[in-house]
Structures are given as structure tokens and as C-alpha cells.
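Why do we care about 3D structure at all? Because function follows from shape, and shape follows, mostly, from sequence. That is the central idea of this module. The next example makes it concrete: a single protein chain, its amino acid sequence, and then its structure expressed as C-alpha cells.
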Amino acid sequence: MGLLKLRKNKKFSYTPRYFDDKGEGNPFEIKHKFDDFRKTVGSNNGLKTKFNNAIDDFKTNPDKDANRRILIIAAILLLICLFIIGFDLSIFFSK
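And the structure:
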């Protein structure tokens, strides 16, 4: 037990269980399975670019029912928030 001697780290020969032996890709890289098909994932420089990519991704979605469902949920949540803060909705309706 030396006082001035540093302890060496243990080395293990770890290979991941489900890693392909062919060497394709990095086994320690965490990547979503749909990242290759989206424009919104990756290096986006500015807010305008991010917004435009999100709108393009929203427009090119083949599932139109999901788009409609998201818009309905967003509208309902907006109305609930307006109701909580006491916003007067009568300005939208004429007498």
C-alpha cells in the first residue's frame, strides 16, 4: 500500500451483446430509428431553419389524420389555457 503510488484502472474486454461483428456502425452510439427519415433531426443553425423544417415535415406526413388530431389537441389546450387566465372570448363573436 504505497502512499505515492497511483492505483491503475481495471480494464475489461467488453463487447456488447447485440453488436454486429461485421463492424457496421458504433455500438455505443445512441440513435433513434427514424432519424434517417426526418429533416428536423440534425444540425439546424437558426430558429427560422428549424421552423421551416418542422413545417415541411408536418406537410409531408403521409398520415393526415394524425395532423388533424394534433391540431385539434392544440386548439383544445389553447382554449383551456385561455379559460384559466380569464381571457374574454366574446371578442371573437359578434352580437
